[in-house]
Amino acid sequence: MGVDPDFWRGRRVLLTGHTGFKGAWLALWLQSLGARVTGFSKDVPTQPSLYELARVREGMDSVTGDVRDHEQVAAAVAQAAPEIVIHMAAQSLVRRSFAQPRETYETNVMGTVNLLDAVRVQGKEVRAVVNVTSDKCYENREWEWGYREDEPMGGHDPYSSSKGAAELVTDAYRRSFFAAPDGPRVASARAGNVIGGGDWGEDRLLPDVMRAALADETVRVRNPNSIRPWQHVLNPLSGYLVLAQALWDSPAHAGGWNFGPPEQDARPVGAIVQRAGELWPGGVRCTLDDGPHPHEARYLKLDSSRARQRLGWAPVIGLDSAIEQTVRWYLALKAGKDMREVTLEQIESCSRPAAGPV
Ligand SMILES: NC(=O)c1ccc[n+]([C@@H]2O[C@H](COP(=O)([O-])OP(=O)(O)OC[C@H]3O[C@@H](n4cnc5c(N)ncnc54)[C@H](O)[C@@H]3O)[C@@H](O)[C@H]2O)c1
After folding, report:
1. N or C: which end of the chain has fewer CB within 10 A?
2. Please, what is the angle between helix 319-334 and helix 205-215, to 10°?
3. Atom 44, ligand 1: residue with shortest CA distance
4. Under a CB-based contact definition with an 8 Å cutoff, are residues 139 and 155 in contact?
């Protein structure tokens, strides 16, 4: 099963976090599929942003609101009358969660409560909810095997534990309020580090490298030997879309789902920086940032067999191509290209039937 344009055409979708990095990519993708998208976000989190550069706002309704405010969330659900809800709004940064733990929990945990409760009370036409959490929701036992969906939730830092808690909230709401087969079907999606054009998140590797490249500055790289699982942003986004389609078809798909990259795409930070530098004309200067750094959990691998077997999902963009597409996106920006067109073209090329799984 792939992303089905017939399914999405005319579909009413509420997407929280649409001004963020992943949200802006998904909002554009949904627009290109002909969905009627309403976005709900607090702000545009970075300057510059994919949301503004690709003029994402042009093809959708956009509501400014705070997921911590339950009345605002309920009003947005009532107004948009969505059939499908995809929840991405979050305080998404591990490092910031050390500086702002309370805000992180309020946004990521109570924001999820407010959204699910608004669906419970106002979501008369909602049939599928996909709550986007993170691979960091699992209690990281620092072991070498892939984590499966039924593994215990946890998290060392406030961000990770807020995502584990958001999973527990989702599970409790599913069992308490959304168990009826004809009611909303609620799933959660767990994916790891994503890369792609248009990310300006702070303390994220490729944004740091691309920012430095565009400004002709030196990038400071932490932990170059740390191995991380990388994937292009469109890979997990295709998983979220396929999951929503499957939920629509059957309540049996309600539950947690991993969307991780293939094993060979777990590579050291230094190798990613080196490859990006090779692709950037003139290269990128880098230096070692030897800290001190807050605690960073070791590599956590997802086992995505369930999504592969039951949803027929597979990532279509391998890591080499992901780095290439990402660098090409920033080069297009530097060249003054129309970034809406460039972004839509990257979405289109990943959705072509010829694109096979990696
Ligand atoms: N980017 C990654 O590598 C990654 C990895 C794993 C999981 N995720 C998860 O995917 C989702 C999207 O990530 P992203 O990288 O696009 O994040 P981002 O930081 O780029 O965007 C966050 C979005 O949430 C909105 N938001 C933040 N606080 C809000 C609030 N209180 N009320 C309403 N809206 C609020 C922002 O306005 C923005 O639209 C998040 O849930 C994140 O935790 C991201």
Report:
1. N
2. 30
3. 92
4. yes
For the chain, give me the number of helices (H) and strands (E)? 14, 13
Q: How far away, in angstroms, is 20 Cα from ligand 1 center? A: 6
Q: Which residues of 149-188 are buried (b: 16+ CB within 10 A; e: fewer)?
A: bebebbbebbbbbbbbbbbebbbebbeebbeeeebbbbbb
- 93 alpha carbon to ligand 1 midpoint, in Å? 8
In tens, the pLDDT along 220-254 reads: 998 898 888 899 999 999 999 999 999 999 999 99
How far CA 23 is from CA of 70, 179, 230, 279, in Å, comes to 21, 28, 18, 26
Cα 243 to chain centroid distance, Å, stands at 14
Cis peptide before 152 (omega within 30 of 0): no
Closest CA to 345 of 35, 8, 60, 28: 28
Q: How far is the CA of 282 from the centre of ligand 1 (A)?
A: 33
| Ligand 1 binding pocket includes 221 (Cβ within 6 Å) | no
Nearest CA to ligand 1 atom 42: 92
CB of 19 sitting under 6 A from ligand 1: yes
Measured distance CA(194)–CA(22) in Å, rounded: 9
Single-letter residue type at 140: N
User: Whose CA is closest to 50, among 199, 194, 151, 234?
Assistant: 199
The three-state secondary structure class of 106 is helix
Single pTM value for the model:
0.97
Query: Which of 22, 29, 170, 233 to mutate to test ligand 1, by most ligand atoms within 8 A of the CB atom?
Result: 22
* Mean per-residue pLDDT, 99-113: 98
DSSP labels for 29-58? HHHHTT-EEEEEESS--SSS-HHHHTTGGG
Do you know the residue count of the chain? 358
Q: What pLDDT does 353 receive?
A: 53
Could you write out the DSSP letters of every residue in 117-178? HHHHHH-TT--EEEEE--GGGB-----SSPBPTTSPB--SSHHHHHHHHHHHHHHHHHHHHS
